[in-house]
Amino acid sequence: MTSDVCEDIEQNHCQLYKDEGYCDWVENIKEQCRLTCGLCGPSTTTTTTMTSDVCEDIEQNHCQLYLDEGYCETSTAVMDQCQKTCGLCEDDDSEG
Predict the structure, then answer these.
(1) pTM for the whole structure
(2) For residues 68 and 63, what is the distance between their CA atoms, to the nearest angstrom?
């Protein structure tokens, strides 16, 4: 049974794969990274129901790499996944 939910199964590297162009020709990447690769189609709307005001990094392994490589400024997916590392938290007064 195929799920109708359009999401990335691969949790760590989809943005990197997209940036490297793999979404265009690697079938496995197309299957594992449907959302990031933009393969959901216009009629599919996916809403992540994690209504939390917590500003944190969803991506757990590569945010610092993405920041170092400049993706925090150019990739909306990285901005969404790495809010804290990219410095996008509105109230980041918790550091002191």
Answers:
(1) 0.44
(2) 9
